[in-house]
Amino acid sequence: MDKVVEATALAKVNLALHVTGRRDNGYHDLESLVAFADLGDELVARPAVADRLQLCGPFAGALTPGQTNLVTKAVQAFRERWPGTVPHGVEITLDKNLPVSAGIGGGSADAAATLRLMADLADPPIPVEELMPVAARLGADVPVCLMSRPCLVRGIGEIVEPIDILPPAYLVLINPLVPVSTADVFRRLKSRENPGLPQIPHPLSHAAMLGLWMAESRNDLEQAAIELVPVIGKLIVELAGTPGCVAARMSGSGATVFGLYGSESLAHLAARTLRQRFPDAWVAAAPLAAAG
């Protein structure tokens, strides 16, 4: 009853994101190569009298702990699927380090981490693979965030294929702290029927090789997001011009932009430069999270 468990909700990065169609129900079919940066929100769960969510961290002020929070929804969804397996209340503390509505998983990663925490507290523990249907009902990005490893993602996010072919690399993330509405971005799409991802060569032994593959791919949401928040385009150009950057692109529906580097020192140099040039932006440098 005194068990305390912790989880990190890693930042999701869409290395490429192709919109390949639109379904009759309005949802879009996607193909995406997703990786994770080795930084994120931190969650701690401990037994309590009743379920409750505590918020802290630099971006906690952008959230509320009520029924609309994805952490709260994840707890409720877990209890509905596995009633009685966690017989006590659970207090979850969310240290919100990532900006919200930023195209890097944010709330989806928090929901996925919450499912993992609840699975650890359950008696008996619930295997991660059994969490996938519940994750899919919580949001399109929650299944891949549940994996928190490099994956190919298809459909509306429910088809998730782990891969082990990405090279060691480093990311610089920059967000202008301007929220972007995913729905608004999709409404502005000029084309909803686009080619899928190019074949990924194997092995990808260096970041430069991944960068070459990325040059043949796209983020089909990027131009629409730039129309809504023009600074996104400026950030892409700025990142692409930093020494050692082999690719620069927007992640998800924005507004976070990332640069890919083969050198840790050049990634941190780029982050320092961008902090000076954009003092009001959120900037972070981190390695790609390892597979598995």
Tell me what the structure shows.
The chain has 292 residues and is an alpha+beta fold. The strands form 2 sheets. Strands 1, 2, 3, 4, 5 and 6 form a 6-stranded mixed beta sheet that branches. The chain has a 4-stranded antiparallel beta sheet with strand order 8-9-7-10, sandwiched between helices. The chain contains 9 helices and 10 strands. Helix 1 packs parallel to helix 2 (106-121). The two termini are 29 Å apart. It folds into 2 domains: 5-162, 2-Layer Sandwich (Ribosomal Protein S5, domain 2); 170-287, 2-Layer Sandwich (Alpha-Beta Plaits), CATH 3.30.70.
Protein topology:
Layout: E1 5-22, E2 28-48, E3 52-56, H1 70-81, E4 89-95, H2 106-121, H3 132-138, H4 142-147, E5 151-155, E6 159-162, E7 170-175, H5 182-187, H6 207-215, H7 222-228, H8 231-240, E8 245-250, E9 257-261, H9 264-277, E10 282-287
Parallel strand pairs: 3-4
Antiparallel strand pairs: 1-2, 2-4, 2-5, 5-6, 7-9, 7-10, 8-9
Helix pairs in contact: 1-2
Defining key terms:
alpha+beta; six-stranded mixed beta sheet; 292 residues; 2 domains; Ribosomal Protein S5, domain 2; Alpha-Beta Plaits
What does the main sheet amount to?
6 strands, mixed
Could you tell me the CATH topology label of the largest domain: Ribosomal Protein S5, domain 2
Per CATH, the class of the largest domain reads Alpha Beta
Shape: globular
Task: Tell me which CATH architecture of the largest domain applies here.
Answer: 2-Layer Sandwich
Short note summarizing the structure:
This protein is an alpha+beta fold and 292 residues long. The protein is built from 9 helices and 10 strands. Strands 1, 2, 3, 4, 5 and 6 form a 6-stranded mixed sheet that branches.
